Amino acid sequence: MNPGNWPTGYTKFACLVGDPAAHSLSPTLFNSGFSFLGLDWAYLAMSVSPDRLAAAIGGLKALGVGGISVTMPHKKEIIGLLDGLTPSAAMLSSVNVVYVEAGELIGDSTDGRALVDNLSFDHGIDLRGKRVALVGTGAVARSISVSLVQADVEKLSIHGRNRAAAREIHLLASLGGSSTQVVLGEATDIETAEIVINGTSLGMSGRGHEGYSPVDKGLLHGGQFLCDVVYHPLETRFLQYAREIGAPHTNGVGMLTRIAVLAFERWTGEKAPVQEMRSAVTAEVKKRVSASAGR
Question: What is the pTM for the complete model shown?
Fold first, then answer.
């Protein structure tokens, strides 16, 4: 692709639909990958209000969209507007990515798969037989719980203040006949876990709870691997604890990148340039953090 002649009459496009969407890092991730490989693709972030979602999806389908990313508040509402769902999306009743197959829109749920890929491919962690504590009861935590069970962890403890939601995740993750022991977690389950995952937004910038950790520092130790799904800031209070106690850890950039990688490869049929995409989004987060600090 020659940038001077781009876009062309053949340029394929993909997009994010959310409300809001302008803050999204997805354009940075996807467009850096398209550019690195010289693909004639473009990715846009589109703010779509709930009352306009049906019209937007119908329009995107008519225009020949190459793929759609889905964020809040549309992950459930979009289901009835699609032509089909993968087994994962059907089980979780949630969609974060849409593929185009023979002109039909097929929804998938890949949040949990992306986190497992991040731990496995980027950090060399074999999840089989591991004891994992998962904090959170929202849509992301639901997806993560199912993927951890599918990865054959030995024990998965679910931790959350909303006990009803925690019990729902416990039931969901227990389905499928896996040998994984799934429990409603107590503090001792965090202390004895080999991997501790923050599957909540606690600590994220702009949410009013920066500087907070979902787990008390006293429950953590250097023999654990700590994983945060939050990517802004790059180091949350939870990960500050990890650094202070000498525990290996990762922020949400890896999971965010792997979500994009799964969609990128499905949409384009090309191997995604993972490192280039991760570097681009990390630089963008640092830029935004610096800009916020300067205000």
Answer: 0.94
34: CATH: 3.40.50.10860
Q: Do the domain assignments include residue 26?
A: yes
Please name the residues in contact with 154: beta carbons below 8 A apart, sequence gap of 6 or more. 128, 129, 130, 131, 180, 181
Overall number of domains in the chain: 2
pLDDT averaged over 10-residue windows placed end to end, the chain, 295 residues: 75 98 96 98 98 98 98 97 97 96 98 98 98 95 94 95 84 79 95 98 82 96 98 95 98 98 99 98 92 70
Q: Which residue has the tokens 């403890």?
A: 157
**Does residue 286 have an active-site annotation?**
no
Given 12, 75, 130, 155, the catalytic residue: 75
Q: What is the CATH number of the domain that holds 198?
A: 3.40.50.720
From the DSSP assignment, how many helices (H) and strands (E) are in the chain? Answer: 11, 12
Question: Residue 82's pLDDT is what?
Answer: 99
- Are residue 140 and residue 214 in the same domain, yes or no? yes
Domain containing residue 233: 112-251
